[in-house]
């Protein structure tokens, strides 16, 4: 469980709430909630909202509720419920026994609508969806009253009862709150509070054919659960007057209070559920847990940890408006966590064969190499060394530019944890001219760890033993959107905004055999390539597929 009582002193949300609580406005303990609709998977923006609600409750010794807003059977599924519960617990925001479902309050919400009708504050309207939109008006022009606004209380009650009993077709009738069609706030222009939907509900089955709208159900659900603060993102600010109107007209004493915080967006990342669903269902990605997606499931599969995500959210702090945050900050938070904890191993993504011509033919020696160069406590591991090894192809240049400190003809480098080698001969394919292998010599007096203090070399490169190396596949990820794109909305077709290089898979990568000695759940640093983990979706001992979590370069810390 996360403990957030120690900070937030500079967070505007916490200052507001503390000032209000100092006046003792509630006759009950602090209580917040996170109300996801189970029609998709949680994403990084959801984590920000969860953190805000959870940490407020923790800071003020309150309770945190997870409540599913499941009042639209057309889109919701138990699959999403299970995934959301799993993700929230994985993030460290466990609600414990406080997991609720809006659909469980169906009778209370129905009777709330009946109460409004009896008070003359709601009516059954026969306008079509297009007519409702037409009558609503615009941001600059007031709406006009529905001709059905003047029905009697008795007629409205009778019609609403028939709606509940399935006597009318879908979309033929709705229930609307009677507020003010001339209100400057378009959300207050007689909003729809109930509609007819004939669809099996994953939880209540066919018990209901009428379902409340979110803006109506939400404050009622909050009141039933004793929520004190309904904390939501800033796009709901214009909905607050309706939230308060519902509670007032239902005569709710000590009503919950809605307060808003900024909405989190990340550069190069899609957080719209609509587009995420289209990418998943259209086969553009490998499910909701595709490592390129900002879903919590995707981040988990890619290799992010709950600690790194929480650190990212805490680093952002409180935001008041819709904000765009550079995704490199998220990568930075993960690097900061992993750099002293991950096993450092040698992997060669694009192998180039090296034969050490003066090394004993059948000799294999075991070299001790540190597991983490920044943390001696992580110990060392054995790596076999022999006559033939592989290095990275780009660690050798036949005609090196000035400042190139890796391997080139007649130049020396150190092999990581091993010896100095000198390139003596370059072997090429006669037809293509491609370099196929290097013939080098090694200096047996330069073995690492022997206290050698002779000549020095400027470069150290990694390597893997040819005979004992393990073959793996590696997935390299980039942003899902092209660099110049910031949104899936507007302009060209959204499919044209997807980065075609968001996933590059390299097969037959060679990695040192010690990889077999570590748990598959371990996080690794592939020396000079970044942080990696085994793809949990395809995790077997027979075939290892590694996902690069983040490269080593940390652009955020340089800003």
TrEMBL record:
<keyword id="KW-0963">Cytoplasm</keyword>
<keyword id="KW-0030">Aminoacyl-tRNA synthetase</keyword>
<dbReference type="InterPro" id="IPR020058">
    <property type="entry name" value="Glu/Gln-tRNA-synth_Ib_cat-dom"/>
</dbReference>
<keyword id="KW-0436">Ligase</keyword>
<dbReference type="Pfam" id="PF00749">
    <property type="entry name" value="tRNA-synt_1c"/>
</dbReference>
<keyword id="KW-0067">ATP-binding</keyword>
<dbReference type="InterPro" id="IPR014729">
    <property type="entry name" value="Rossmann-like_a/b/a_fold"/>
</dbReference>
<dbReference type="InterPro" id="IPR049437">
    <property type="entry name" value="tRNA-synt_1c_C2"/>
</dbReference>
<dbReference type="InterPro" id="IPR020059">
    <property type="entry name" value="Glu/Gln-tRNA-synth_Ib_codon-bd"/>
</dbReference>
<dbReference type="InterPro" id="IPR000924">
    <property type="entry name" value="Glu/Gln-tRNA-synth"/>
</dbReference>
<comment type="similarity">
    <text>Belongs to the class-I aminoacyl-tRNA synthetase family.</text>
</comment>
<protein>
    <recommendedName>
        <fullName>Glutamine--tRNA ligase</fullName>
        <ecNumber>6.1.1.18</ecNumber>
    </recommendedName>
</protein>
<dbReference type="Pfam" id="PF20974">
    <property type="entry name" value="tRNA-synt_1c_C2"/>
</dbReference>
<feature type="domain" description="Glutamyl/glutaminyl-tRNA synthetase class Ib catalytic">
    <location>
        <begin position="31"/>
        <end position="337"/>
    </location>
</feature>
<dbReference type="InterPro" id="IPR050132">
    <property type="entry name" value="Gln/Glu-tRNA_Ligase"/>
</dbReference>
<dbReference type="GO" id="GO:0005829">
    <property type="term" value="C:cytosol"/>
</dbReference>
<keyword id="KW-0648">Protein biosynthesis</keyword>
<dbReference type="InterPro" id="IPR020056">
    <property type="entry name" value="Rbsml_bL25/Gln-tRNA_synth_N"/>
</dbReference>
<dbReference type="InterPro" id="IPR011035">
    <property type="entry name" value="Ribosomal_bL25/Gln-tRNA_synth"/>
</dbReference>
<dbReference type="Pfam" id="PF03950">
    <property type="entry name" value="tRNA-synt_1c_C"/>
</dbReference>
<dbReference type="GO" id="GO:0005524">
    <property type="term" value="F:ATP binding"/>
</dbReference>
<feature type="domain" description="Glutamyl/glutaminyl-tRNA synthetase class Ib anti-codon binding">
    <location>
        <begin position="345"/>
        <end position="443"/>
    </location>
</feature>
<dbReference type="InterPro" id="IPR004514">
    <property type="entry name" value="Gln-tRNA-synth"/>
</dbReference>
<dbReference type="GO" id="GO:0006425">
    <property type="term" value="P:glutaminyl-tRNA aminoacylation"/>
</dbReference>
<dbReference type="GO" id="GO:0004819">
    <property type="term" value="F:glutamine-tRNA ligase activity"/>
</dbReference>
<keyword id="KW-0547">Nucleotide-binding</keyword>
<feature type="domain" description="tRNA synthetases class I (E and Q) anti-codon binding">
    <location>
        <begin position="460"/>
        <end position="535"/>
    </location>
</feature>
